[in-house]
Amino acid sequence: MSTSITRENFDQWMLPVYAPAPFIPVRGEGSRLWDQQGNEYIDFAGGIAVNALGHAHPALCKALSEQAARFWHTGNGYTNEPVLKLAKQLLDATFADRAFFCNSGAEANEAALKLARKYAHDTFGPQKSGIVAFKNAFHGRTLFTVSAGGQPAYSQDFAPLPPQIQHAIYNDLASASVLINDDTCAVIVEPMQGEGGVVPANQAFLQGLRELCTRHNAVLIFDEVQTGVGRTGELYAYMHYGVTPDVLTTAKALGGGFPIGAMLTTETFGKVMNVGTHGTTYGGNPLAGAVAGAVLDIVNTPETLDGVKQRHQWFVEQLMAFNDRHPLFSDIRGLGLLIGCQLVTEHAGKAKQISQLAAAEGVMVLIAGGNVVRFAPALNISEEEVRTGLTRFTRACEKFLAENIS
């Protein structure tokens, strides 16, 4: 078999569930990537908010290689030191008393929803099974989590879906209050919707959900898969709001690029998950535990978290300066280094075109639906990389406007 790999091989060999860029990155350092042809890109995509410390961070490489030289895997019949140390780091830094480790955000949310159902059934009876989620949410791609996500485009092809899941309007407490009742076992919500358009929650909305869940004995789950691990300028976004959930899910940036997810909860809820109730073969393996521990050592510091808030200002100021000259965006929003730029009505549905033009200029950005360009760069991206990347991005936007003159 030839060792020459091209982008066309994807179309030949892979299940066509993605539409990847026409270039293949082969090397990364910090917030820069290079493709097979040696072209350089500033990375504002961050692996979809995963690469918290950029590419090939020395501390993460060291943690991975040192653990790899010791042992990689034992399965859940044994525990290991790296994952126990990681659990203690997370519990010490959050509201939680117990942790469960898995491989992804979808798995973390699956575990959270299963915990909520079991707690409700054990404590109140089988009738307490309802789940309230929100329109335009995204919680993963398993059948349970894609059903909880309020985007029919991701779930409608896989019906029949798990029952007793209802969707309220995000940031609309009245809409949620109509659905939450004594038969509700869980409410699952993102403190800031990521895939749904980079929409931060209102504080009153999250506070109201907390009160409704307490009143109706429902488990409040915060999906912090995208907002967690320093992304918003706090270790977890719930800390911005002064609202404490019963369960928190985290993944993406937790491993800085190495696959790991976690569900965090209190003793009250965690104790219902006894031996054999749930599990995973790879979850909490020593490699993932070692790398995630190194990530938290760096991210959960005032220097990094304050730096995220500073970098937010760098992005917003430069994006707004461009938008003042060329009104392309109707809103520039977000927290920390999760930023969304909503296209004006005239250019609705064309976010993908902008991202493709940006790549051609040497900067990688994300989209959140057809109308929002999304930025989720490394938390330690330099000021020079922000400036250079945004210069390339604005050049792409100018080309977009020139090509889309009405």
Secondary structure layout:
Layout: H1 8-13, E1 25-29, E2 32-35, E3 40-43, H2 46-49, H3 58-68, H4 81-93, E4 98-102, H5 105-124, E5 130-134, H6 143-148, H7 152-155, E6 165-168, H8 173-179, E7 184-189, E8 192-193, E9 199-200, H9 203-215, E10 219-223, H10 238-241, E11 247-250, E12 261-265, H11 267-270, H12 286-299, H13 302-325, E13 329-335, E14 338-343, H14 351-361, E15 363-364, E16 366-367, E17 372-375, H15 383-403
Parallel strand pairs: 3-15, 5-6, 5-7, 7-10, 10-11
Antiparallel strand pairs: 1-2, 2-3, 4-12, 8-9, 11-12, 13-14, 14-17, 16-17
Helix pairs in contact: 3-12, 4-12, 13-15, 14-15
Keywords: Amino-acid biosynthesis, Aminotransferase, Arginine biosynthesis, Cytoplasm, Lysine biosynthesis, Pyridoxal phosphate, Transferase
Organism: Kosakonia oryziphila
GO molecular function: identical protein binding; N2-acetyl-L-ornithine:2-oxoglutarate 5-aminotransferase activity; pyridoxal phosphate binding; succinyldiaminopimelate transaminase activity
Description:
- The chain is 40% helix and 18% strand.
- By secondary structure, the chain is of the alpha/beta class.
- The chain folds into two domains: 8-57 and 302-403, Aspartate Aminotransferase, domain 1 (Alpha-Beta Complex), CATH 3.90.1150; 71-299, Aspartate Aminotransferase, domain 2 (3-Layer(aba) Sandwich), CATH 3.40.640.10.
- The strands form four sheets. A seven-stranded mixed sheet has the order 4-12-11-10-7-5-6, sandwiched between helices.
- Helix 4 runs parallel beside helix 12 (286-299) and helix 13 (302-325) runs parallel beside helix 15.
- It is globular, with a radius of gyration of 21 Å.
